[in-house]
Amino acid sequence: MRITVIGSGYVGTTTAIVLASLNHQVIGADIDTSKISKLKKGILPFVEPGLNDLLSEMLKTGRLNFTDNIVTAIQESDVIYIAVGTPSREDGTADLRYLQAVADRIAGAINGYKVIVVKSTVPVGTNRWLSDYLSDKIGNPKLFDVVSNPEFLREGSAMYDTLHPDRTVLGGMSGHAIEILKEIYQPLGSKVLITDWETAELIKYASNSFLATKVSFINEMCRIAERAGANVVEVAQGMGMDVRIGAKFLNAGIGYGGSCFPKDVKALIATARELGVELKILEAVETVNRTQPLFYLKKLVQTLRETVDKPWIVALLGLTFKPNTDDQRESPAIRIVEELLPDCQEIRIIDPTIEFPDQTPWPDERKVVVCKTVEEAFSAADAAILCTEWEMFAKINWEEAVRCMRNPILLDGRNFYNPEQLRAAGIRYLALGRGNST
Ligand SMILES: NC(=O)c1ccc[n+]([C@@H]2O[C@H](COP(=O)([O-])OP(=O)(O)OC[C@H]3O[C@@H](n4cnc5c(N)ncnc54)[C@H](O)[C@@H]3O)[C@@H](O)[C@H]2O)c1
Ligand SMILES: O=c1ccn([C@@H]2O[C@H](COP(=O)(O)OP(=O)(O)O[C@H]3O[C@H](CO)[C@@H](O)[C@H](O)[C@H]3O)[C@@H](O)[C@H]2O)c(=O)[nH]1
Questions:
Q1: Please, what is the Cα angle at 199 between 211 and 110, to 5 degrees?
Q2: Index of the ligand 2 atom closest to the CA of residue 215
Q3: What is the C-alpha separation between 305 and 214, in angstroms, rounded?
Q4: Residue range 242-255, pLDDT digits in tens
Q5: Of ligand 2's atoms, which has the minimum distance to the CA of residue 207?
Q6: The domain over range 204-286 is classified in CATH as 1.10.1040.10
Q7: Where in the numbering of this chain does the UDP-glucose/GDP-mannose dehydrogenase C-terminal domain appear (predicted)?
């Protein structure tokens, strides 16, 4: 199959590379010329384990190409994937301007029958709108079919998830187009759910919203555990043993971030409002998540106030919204830095994806320092905060850290460490909801 993937971000690039690995002839297209020139050279413009090697391999086969010429890319393929961003607007609704721009390009370039596959996360009603919009612009509805094919990959395991999806959801009105998509995905052997546009769109938002609900739910349990002297890690363990509940997405912490959960929960609330439905559970999920980083931080600030005068030096371990990605979008660590900054002499960030201050949201803030080593970050620090559970932070020698720090206090924002081990090393260990002693 000749396939074009429009949008070469996290989703589009992963999709293009994996489709090439399934023996399709694939063009990745983007208006961002710097991304395209990197990709052509075999350089992934973002961090994603394993994907760079597969990119190089696929480029060598000649089955994968990248271009910034969107028109030619459309004309040379029979199946066109749309994987552009759908960010939040101020009011929480999804901004569909990039999708509309791609629709205009397709309408202007179409030169034969195309299956148009919407991979971007789009609100209920968008695939139907796209089909009507293209019909109007092209003037011949027989020249294309639109299929909703939402993406469920996670950053940090994008390649694995794309090669081993739990399910493939295909929504649409054309049996012919759906058969083509089934054929494309057939080598993956995943379960396929065939449905209509609106259901496919809602499956994507409902899935992300449900996972976000699990996270906010356990974060609320964490707040109770904190007051009651219970251990939320064991509460999650005990809950997760019930197969009806499941053990995943029950890690309490500073809250969820990323380019998906925050935006998709907001967009679903906004869609529901437009439809006259109030989503009370999701509104609460958002509120809990918004307040969660500060709930944690309060505990550290209280301890610091009792221990040492301001301004403080704080080492911040991890700025990305989760490990194994360079994505900082909506990272709760950013909220923490912004909240702490006025009280600090320095915030020293250490993150394996960050080398320079211009890779942080504060390129000109002299109080934000990017460190290359843990020792540098800990030197004379009054406290450390673990925001992202990168593997490198599991290897910290805490005895040495205690010797380096002015005040060996650690706030564990992901309940990542073993409290006994850290206390034995001499750290004043703070977590949330891990029993009376933390
Ligand atoms: N990132 C994820 O983990 C993930 C997972 C599942 C679904 N999604 C959804 O997939 C979509 C894409 O997300 P992403 O994280 O890959 O976004 P991204 O911001 O990384 O990439 C989007 C790309 O689209 C390009 N683009 C914008 N307008 C264009 C145009 N007119 N023509 C060609 N290219 C254009 C941009 O230059 C950019 O490279 C979003 O709807 C998102 O919600 C993301
Ligand atoms: O028990 C948990 C699990 C996750 N998180 C946080 O939740 C956020 C999201 O994590 P994760 O879902 O692993 O990352 P994403 O890459 O954002 O993936 C989500 O969003 C994608 C974009 O829509 C979907 O495709 C995926 O299925 C969905 O998991 C991160 O900040 C995590 O730290 C927790 O706090 N506790």
A1: 115
A2: 36
A3: 33
A4: 999 999 999 999 99
A5: 27
A6: yes
A7: 315-419
- Banded model confidence at residue 435, pLDDT cuts 50, 70, 90: confident
Mapped onto helix, strand or coil, the DSSP state of residue 319 is coil
Q: How far is CA 186 from each of CA 1, 23, 171, 375, 410, rounded to the nearest angstrom? A: 13, 12, 16, 50, 49
The C-alpha atoms of residue 419 and residue 304 are separated, in whole angstroms, by 19
The listed CATH number (3.40.50.1260, 3.40.50.720, 3.10.20.30, 1.10.3720.10) that belongs to domain 291-430: 3.40.50.720
Split at pLDDT 50, 70, 90, the class of 437 is: low
Confirm whether 344 is a catalytic residue: no
State pLDDT tens for residues 380-418. Answer: 999 999 999 999 999 999 999 999 999 999 999 999 999
Residue 257, ligand 2, Cβ within 6 A:
yes
Answer yes or no: CATH 3.30.360.10 is held by domain 2-194: no
Whose CA is closest to atom 23 on ligand 2? Answer: 260
Pick the residue whose CA is nearest to atom 7 on ligand 2.
256
pLDDT > 90 in the chain, percent: 99
